[in-house]
Amino acid sequence: MEYKDYYKILGVARDATQDEIKRAYRKLARKYHPDVSKEADAEQKFKQLGEANEVLKDTEKRAAYDQLGVDWQAQQDFRPPPGWASGFEFHGGPRGAGGNEDFSDFFKSLFGRAGGAAGSHHRQGFQMQGEDHHARVLIDLEDSYNGASRSISLQMPELTRDGHVKTARRTLKVRIPKGIRQGQQIRLSGQGSPGTGGGKAGDLYLEIEFNPHGIYRVEGSDVYLELPLAPWEAALGAAVKVLTPAGTVDLKIPANSKAGKKLRLKGRGIPAKTPGDLYVVIQISLPPADDEKARAMYERMRDELSFNPRAKMEVA
Description:
By secondary structure, this protein is α+β, with helices and mostly antiparallel strands. 24% of the residues lie in helices and 27% in strands.
């Protein structure tokens, strides 16, 4: 996926004011509008301008996009880093609601199909309820197992008087409920935009995402752990201690276990009324042949064991 430099597309500096961005877009949009332009690629350029403007005209999307920096331009295949926009607070609906299907895969990878849709206001007479806010936050998998109270910092982009974008930070004390899963939301009542005319304040919705973990991966309420074994442990069977998010367990490895074999620990996944499972996926690690004794042992295995890992691949 190609990285999109939206500032370059609009021909503005990265520190351009919002008014400068608006003027640049209007000028280029008139130049490349398919109804008036004679350029062969006018339609494609017009779409690119619209996408760039969609991001840079919006202070929230622009501030989040700026977090990527400029180093991505040198990469051939762009992939957004895990949790790249976590901690950014957006007005309106959650990212990914709505249209803008014609935008590039780069845009959709960052902001979903629409990059956040404006939330609805609720009118009661002359009162108007404040707009809801949404943010994605990262927690540890262990927080879901045990429940926790955490201080979470959020960044809310603001427009300065001179038209530049800055970010203000606020810190909230949040209770992480036991058993929460990735993608679920925590609602903080009254923490969105203030209402008008005496209307209620909007709410803040925190979408949960787990911090990348070096040991575990999560699918729904199930947790997967890749367990390295020595060849003799896999071949002969063994009893090993395995670290899980809920603590250490003793695990019996069946003899003749192959790489990729899954051992299911029922109910040891993410807690819930019906808890998930923990799957231990066996991986076999080979000792290095880095000294004479180790090489001699491998040579003995080669000579004495009638083992051919490619037997099923051989042509008769």
